[in-house]
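User: Quick sanity check before I run a bigger batch. Here is a single chain. Can you write out its predicted 3D structure?
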Amino acid sequence: MANEEQRLISAAQAGDLDSFNQIVRLYETRVYNLCYRMLGDTDAAADATQEAFIAAFRNLRSFRGGVFKAWLLRIATNACYDALRARKRRPAVSLDSTDDEDEGARTEVHDPGESLDDRVLRQELSAAIQRGLAELPEDQRIVIILSDIQGLAYEEIAQITGVQLGTVKSRLSRARAKLRDILRAGELLPAKFRLDDESDKLR
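Assistant: Done. Predicted structure follows.
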């Protein structure tokens, strides 16, 4: 896969639009999911995703090697920050819109062997996590999305966010603790996942 990705990048840098479109198809779900988790709104996430790929295309020749995924997700992260700044200037849509939670679930890959009950429960959990994410500061929100949802290593997150490794770890620790407290205190979790005794609360 790495060799094929490098071939596509080299061809796209030389002006091959079809190769860039293949890169988009490889990464569009990951980029969209990052934008959706950061912005909590499907339209805003779609716009940020589009802006990210446009910026990536315009700046592709500046990519000189390294981890392309991290390079691309840094662009997507910046697109999200731009959208958040614009939203603060003219607030319109809540981060915890239930309609958008349902829409965002459409980007998930469904297991054909998954029961309807399990699927509904998983979607409820995803929606609860999204509501919790919306309450985190932006710098904490991005690191927990990149680590615990996108599954990236600390080093990749540091590259994407442009902060030191130690800062990534401390922000992630604070984000996890705060998200855990938010979910517990507000009973945002589906009943199956709620803690029901004092011993569990100490774990």
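The domain at 114-192 is CATH 1.10.10.10 (Arc Repressor Mutant, subunit A).

User: Great, the batch can go ahead then.
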